[in-house]
Specification:
It contains nine helices and two strands, in the order ααββααααααα. Helix 1 crosses helix 3 and helix 6 crosses helix 8. The chain starts with a helix and ends with a helix.
Length: 227
């Protein structure tokens, strides 16, 4: 138990070093995040305001990191309160070591490939134009829910091993959120870890039938025909 507490403290220390270090490198111009990028970085070269008066916004990677972590946690809190049972089923599906994670990752990759193929096919039909947008939005929403479940399960498992099995779900989410966020901020490796997390989350949601716990089946249609 004490060993796992030290592991948890060390993980938090490493997460802090990664976030602060990556923000410092970004502030010095020695590192550029190749994913979406920060809002302040996109606004850094823009000036606006009333005629004769301009407001200049400078990029601050440290503020961006803190805002990103806070927003990620708040979105997770919203999902926990909105669909708590679904999150619990998703987190329970992650038990069993790395094998379930690999299975969900493969499922997410196949789902993304199928989505790309479907988007390419619908490009030939004008009346299906809105469908790719809806599918991409649905995929991202499913991936977000899956990532929140992963963060919750990581935090819950670490707290349980550290001797806090009755810790609040919000605390478990906070622990997992910090660790996952720090992993996505690792220089050069972070974007790939972010993509893996999102594809794993999407595969988790699909494999668990949107967190309902039941299998994908057409049995209900067969029962209607027999009736």
């Amino acid at each position: 138990m004490k060993t796992w507490r030290w592991i948890l403290f060390a993980a938090f220390a490493a997460a802090a070093i990664i976030v602060v270090g990556s923000s410092l490198l970004e502030a010095q111009g020695r590192l550029e995040t190749p994913w979406l990028g920060s809002l302040s970085a996109r606004l850094a070269d823009r000036r606006w305001g009333p005629p004769g008066g301009y407001l200049f916004v400078e990029a601050n990677p440290f503020v961006d990191s803190l805002a990103g972590l806070l927003s990620q946690y708040l979105v997770g809190v919203l999902i926990l309160f909105t669909v708590p049972r679904h999150v619990r089923r998703l987190s329970e599906a992650l038990k069993g070591g790395t094998r379930p994670l690999l299975r969900f990752l493969v499922t997410g990759i196949l789902l993304a490939a199928a989505l790309v193929a479907l988007v390419l096919l619908t490009a030939f039909y004008v009346h299906l134009f809105p469908l790719p947008i809806v599918l991409v939005f649905t995929y991202l929403l499913a991936a977000l829910g899956g990532v929140v479940a992963i963060e919750y399960e990581v935090g819950r498992d670490l707290l349980r091993r550290g001797g806090w099995p009755q810790a609040s779900p919000l605390l478990a989410l906070a622990v997992g959120c910090v660790l996952v966020f720090a992993a996505t901020r690792i220089p050069y490796l972070g974007p790939y870890l972010l993509a893996l997390a999102w594809m794993t989350g999407a595969g988790l949601v699909l494999a668990t039938r949107l967190g309902s716990g039941g299998p994908w089946s057409l049995a209900a249609l067969r029962e209607d025909r027999q009736a």
